[in-house]
Write a structure and sequence with these properties.
There is one protein chain. The chain is globular. With 208 residues, the protein is an alpha/beta fold. The chain contains six helices and eight strands. It has one domain: 3-Layer(aba) Sandwich (Rossmann fold), CATH 3.40.50.150.
């Protein structure tokens, strides 16, 4: 699925058995700080952040083809050079391809709640994902999480409580690019805010 320089289709990566990949090398300035977003949807957060903060390199993951294409094309049309989009499952990339200790921040906003018990295994936050986040983050790296979904939040809190050796909790601060009264300013936040839904948010800090 070709969207020019901005998009990377995970199916075109070399087999993971050939070794790990450092995605910072996909950017013009690989030594800049590096942030990941899991489930970028239409790319609103990445577009706003990259316009506000031009130093970091941002890598967004989206496994829905329509949204991936939309986000990548939107970033291209806005001449954003410090964001790339990956088409595929972020957790697979982190587990099988991604080099360790490379990311400063992982963003996870309005992740799919998968409300049915038999689908809980599809939720992004799992014991194994928290261990992956710890592996991929640099020392003192951050994971920002925001959701509107009470049951998913309870699940997250339970998982975070199981991994206090990996992460400690910090109060969530609004993203630099968020608008007045917003936490992150994604499409889902704006839609749910109009409906008057309350949000849950936290930041995890990687422990050594
Ligand atoms: C509910 S939407 C939220 C989109 C955006 N973050 C927002 O707040 O507006 C969640 C998005 O995450 C994507 N997604 C979920 N799990 C994913 C995964 N493991 N890898 C890549 N994308 C994922 C879905 O396709 C969907 O577009």
């Amino acid at each position: 699925m070709d969207v020019g320089d901005i998009g990377i289709d995970m199916r075109t990566l070399p087999p993971s058995t050939e070794g790990r990949i450092d995605p910072r090398n996909w950017f013009a300035e690989p030594s800049n700080s590096f942030e990941l977003e899991i489930g970028s949807g239409k790319g609103t957060f990445l577009l706003q952040e990259a316009q506000k903060r031009t130093e970091p390199n941002y890598l967004g993951f989206e496994w829905t083809a329509e949204f991936y294409r939309y986000a990548a094309d939107r970033l291209r049309r806005n001449h954003i050079s410090n964001v790339k989009m990956v088409y595929g499952d972020a957790t697979e990339f982190l587990q099988f391809w991604c080099e360790e200790a490379i990311a400063d921040v992982i963003h996870l906003y309005f992740s799919d709640p998968w409300p049915k018990t038999r689908h809980h295994k599809r939720r992004v936050i799992q014991d194994r994902t928290l261990r992956m986040f710890h592996r991929v983050l640099k020392k003192s790296g951050l994971v920002h999480v925001v959701t509107d979904h009470d049951d998913l939040w309870e699940w997250c809190e339970e998982h975070f409580a199981q991994h206090t050796a990996l992460f400690r909790r910090l109060e969530f601060g609004a993203a630099p690019s968020a608008g007045a009264g917003e936490l992150v300013g994604t499409n889902f936040e704006r839609k749910y805010k109009r409906e008057g839904r309350p949000f849950h948010a936290t930041t995890l800090v990687r422990m050594d």
